[in-house]
Amino acid sequence: MTRIVILTGAGVSAESGLGTFRDKGGLWTRYDLSEVATPGGFARNPALVHEFYNARRANALDAAPNAAHRALARLQGARAGVTLVTQNIDDLHERGGAREVIHMHGQITRALCAACGARWEAPRAMHPADACPGCAARATRPDIVWFGEVPYHMERIADALAACDLFVAIGTSGEVYPAAGFVEEAAGFGAETLEINLDPSAPGRFDRVIRGPATEAVPAWVAEVLGG
Predict the structure, then answer these.
(1) CATH number of the domain that residue 133 is part of
(2) Same domain, 126 and 213
(3) DSSP state of 133
(4) N or C: which end of the chain has fewer CB within 10 A?
(5) Could you tell me which residue ranges the Deacetylase sirtuin-type domain spans (predicted)?
(6) 16 is an annotated ligand-binding site residue
């Protein structure tokens, strides 16, 4: 059995209408990230942080999974040993049919209490006055990993990278750590490496590179793996 670890980034959801960090004029460019994507920013101005993530949540909920999401779900359903890890905070992989997704940066559809650590399904819009259903503290925040915080499930991801035969990075810039180091980590354990991206990262990092939009390149690669 070939064990595959797939890491997806913003490029997988871009064609569903969800922008990346680098989109000119996109949602991210209209905010100071130190104010909306850090624990300190949340402490200073929780209303601004909720405004930002309410907009992102609405975008995600109104978006639909695309052909890349569906193709990866088809691969996962057809083959044992496929681990799907995403940097994305949307739920398009799940809505596209994926049965298990490791969200290393959290999920926009989940809420977290900064006081007691309780987690629950987030409403479409969150507000600073919202009380935690567990402890009643008015310290609710999106269940998102912010800059300066440790990504989720790192031990589980490390175990999968150590055991995989093929590592595939799809739609990710390869510039944000720790995810940027996954390719070297997998290769160090002897895995083959593949990048599928509109704009490939630095030359020589992957054994093989497939260029193209995710909605075209990913289904074609999945068909290749599944034999047509």
Answers:
(1) 3.30.1600.10
(2) no
(3) T
(4) C
(5) 1-228
(6) yes
147 marked ligand binding residue = no
Domain housing 32:
19-62+108-144
What is the residue type of 56? R
Q: Give the active site residue among 50, 105, 127, 153.
A: 105
Q: Tokens 């942080």 appear where?
A: 49
Q: What is the pLDDT of residues 133-188, one digit of tens each?
A: 999 999 999 999 999 999 999 999 999 999 999 999 999 977 778 888 999 999 99
**Residue 169 marked in a binding site:** no
Residues 188 and 200 reside in one and the same domain: yes
Helix (H) or strand (E) holding 73: helix 67-78
d(CA 11, CA 195): 12
pLDDT digits (tens, 9 = 90+) for 186-220: 999 999 999 999 887 877 899 999 999 999 999 99
pTM beyond 0.90, yes or no: yes
105 has catalytic annotation: yes
